[in-house]
Design brief:
This protein is mainly alpha-helical and 333 residues long. 69% of the residues lie in helices and 9% in strands. It has ten helices and three strands, in the order H-H-H-H-H-H-H-H-E-E-H-E-H.
Length: 333
């Protein structure tokens, strides 16, 4: 979400950079998946095969994220008057499921088979080391691009990287950042498993590394799925934006009191706003209409993320409305 400043929209550059980030990750993961699969067959390493499945899952994930970017950009129409922004959350949720099903499950299978099955003899470990080193270099390229975008957007919003990742409504860049971070960590685990198998002659280390890779992917998938679930079911807009809009409406001359303020993210950098306002009773109907038109325009000018704005005149003393507001927010208002 952009910060509450009267700045120009930054949606298009962000979309372009998100597409670049996803395309770069897709190309890198496909190349890495092929190399890891070949190395896994040659070395017989469970951790290497688990990492191959990891990269295959990441490749599928990038494909789903590209679909998310394309479909969510469609304009609003009669059947979807608020647009298709939430399509990005749906496809990103499928990407999180893909990480778990294609990556974590296979890694767990390989790990349990190796730890509790017959010992596996390691062959040509040097091939595995070389492939892991190349994969680490390629993943670093994709990870660097994701980190660059995350840092730039966090700096634009005046947040730390962790705070930005927690509240961001763009699941594509968050997914690429997390999966690339998990990929680099997984490569280190695979290297450790391959190396310990080589040094000790025990394939158990290889299996343990595979299990840890599976656990890593499962955690990443769970976090990403939770993020997209919250956005799909209707998460509130950025709290900084909500507070800024509330403060602005409170200071509007025609408004006596802000009774309620409802927001929902309907897409990346797109917010639905419904404000229930107790206007000055001395206003005529024409004055009220002009005030609503002016407030709508000023809100959109100050905060370009506001996609749809609804202003509802209500009496602050209505007991039923007040009870609903208190049930939602408690005594914080």
């Amino acid at each position: 979400m952009t910060t509450p400043d009267p700045a120009t929209p930054v949606t298009e550059p962000v979309k372009s950079e998100s597409t670049l980030t996803v395309l770069l990750a897709l190309a890198m993961n496909f190349a890495i998946a092929v190399m890891k699969a070949i190395a896994g067959v040659i070395t017989g390493s469970a951790a290497m095969l688990a990492e191959a499945a990891h990269s295959v899952a990441d490749t599928f994930t990038e494909g789903l994220l590209l679909t998310a970017l394309r479909r969510s950009a469609r304009p609003a129409d009669r059947r979807h008057p608020f647009g298709y922004g939430k399509d990005r959350y749906f496809w990103s949720l499928l990407a999180a499921v893909s990480i778990f099903v294609s990556g974590a499950v296979f890694a767990f299978y390989e790990g349990f088979s190796t730890v509790f099955g017959e010992p596996v003899e390691q062959t040509s470990p040097g091939v595995g080391y070389v492939v892991l080193a190349i994969a680490f270099a390629l993943e670093s390229v994709s990870w660097t691009q994701a980190v660059r975008q995350v840092r730039r957007e966090a700096r634009t919003e005046g947040r730390s990287v962790l705070a930005f990742l927690r509240v961001s409504d763009d699941p594509t860049v968050k997914t690429v950042f997390m999966e690339d971070s998990a990929a680099l960590t997984g490569l280190l685990l695979a290297f450790a498993g391959l190396g310990l198998h080589h040094l000790t002659g025990s394939s158990v280390w290889d299996g343990v590394a595979s299990l840890l890779i599976g656990l890593l992917l499962a955690v990443a998938a769970f976090v990403l799925a939770g993020t997209n679930r919250g956005l799909l079911i209707g998460r509130q807009a950025d709290p900084k934006l909500v507070r800024a809009v509330w403060a602005y409406l409170r200071d509007v001359p025609e408004v006596d009191q802000v009774v309620d303020l409802l927001t929902m993210a309907v897409g990346t950098d797109r917010v639905l706003l419904c404000a229930r306002l107790d206007f000055d009773d001395a206003l005529s109907a024409a004055d009220l209409e002009r005030a609503c038109v002016r407030i709508d325009g000023e809100l959109r000018s100050r905060w370009p993320d506001l996609d749809e704005v609804f202003l509802e005149p209500v009496p602050r003393t209505d007991p039923e409305l007040r009870s609903r507001v208190l049930a939602r927010y408690g005594n914080l208002l």
